[in-house]
Amino acid sequence: MDAGLAGVEALSGIPGTVGAAPVQNIGAHGQELGERLVGIDFLDYATGEVMRLDARDLGLGYRTSALKRGRAGIVLAVELDLDAGGWSGPIAYAQLASALQVELGERVPLADARRAVLALRASKGMVLDAADPDSVSAGSFFTNPIVSESFARAMPADAPRWPIVSEEPERVLAPGEDVPALASAEYQVKLSAAWLIERSGISRGFTLPGSGAAISTKHTLAIVNRGGATAADVAQLASLVQTRVLAEFGVRLHPEPVFVGVEL
Ligand SMILES: Cc1cc2nc3c(=O)[nH]c(=O)nc-3n(C[C@H](O)[C@H](O)[C@H](O)COP(=O)(O)OP(=O)(O)OC[C@H]3O[C@@H](n4cnc5c(N)ncnc54)[C@H](O)[C@@H]3O)c2cc1C
């Protein structure tokens, strides 16, 4: 962005390294790394060799990739296709458009886009900040569930819904990777995990007795460590959230973080 290059400005403030970015195809506020990713240099543990992988060979999806699903190795370099000129890409997220006081699809100076994104993220405790206890989290804990159109129609009228086009690009499966199920003929719809959690009766700040983990006071989608939370505390709270949403709406939420040593 300092060089005036646009295409990933909406990802401002997502904590992490460049190499980890393609692993879960990071995304936020209407942009996803995969839209700009050309390819990666990859040290493949299976062969011990450094190879070039094109983005279309990475099985990128919503917060996932073949790397997250188990293709072992190290991302050594990332090539992005960015736009010169100092203007943002088309604003594709309603809250961001309204913060910038522009219509969806408009462009703004790159620095304005970054500033607005960082402010929006901070209001949800999503920028790492030692002074903000709500930022002591793993980010969004659950992905937004994707359901069929007919299922989405049966949701309450005020449930946020975003129709999505599921276009799995042609690609070579990684060794050991499962063959994906055929995409359904009907289009799919993304629901808001935060809305589902709130409407299933779990409010901001919610915690269990004796637990160090709590729902963020700024955002129902983040589970924060209020001090001394164990992985088991986090998993217990996450499991309660999952159960409540499943009972209320029949939707199973899937965690975005990878679990090591604990089960959900
Ligand atoms: C406050 C907060 C807000 C967040 N907001 C967002 C958000 O808006 N959108 C979003 O998508 N994510 C978000 N996240 C999640 C997180 O920022 C991303 O997953 C990020 O990519 C993690 O980077 P990391 O370097 O910390 O990777 P780690 O968490 O250390 O690693 C993630 C995975 O990638 C693997 N990995 C790491 N580096 C490499 C490499 N070079 N080669 C191969 N594998 C590697 C690790 O083994 C691990 O499996 C948020 C997290 C926090 C804490």
SS field, number of helical segments: 5
Uncertain runs: none
Query: Bound small molecules, which ones?
Result: flavin-adenine dinucleotide
Radius of gyration: 19 Å
Shape: globular
Number of individual domains: 2
Instruction: Profile the largest sheet.
Output: 3 strands, antiparallel
Q: CATH topology of the largest domain, anyone?
A: Uridine Diphospho-n-acetylenolpyruvylglucosamine Reductase, domain 1
Order of helices and strands: EEEEEHHEEHEEHEEH
Sheet with most strands: strand arrangement: 4-3-5
Outline of the structure:
This is UDP-N-acetylenolpyruvoylglucosamine reductase. The protein is α+β, with helices and mostly antiparallel strands.
Can you describe this structure?
The chain is of the alpha+beta class and 264 residues long. The protein has 2 domains: 115 residues, 2-Layer Sandwich (Uridine Diphospho-n-acetylenolpyruvylglucosamine Reductase, domain 3), CATH 3.30.465.10; 117 residues, Uridine Diphospho-n-acetylenolpyruvylglucosamine Reductase, domain 1 (Alpha-Beta Complex). It has 5 helices and 11 strands. The chain has a 3-stranded antiparallel β-sheet with strand order 4-3-5, with no helix packed on it. It has a 3-stranded antiparallel β-sheet with strand order 6-11-10, with helices on one face. It has a 3-stranded antiparallel β-sheet with strand order 7-9-8. The radius of gyration is 19 Å and the shape is globular. The site of flavin-adenine dinucleotide has 23 residues, from strand 1, strand 5 and strand 6.
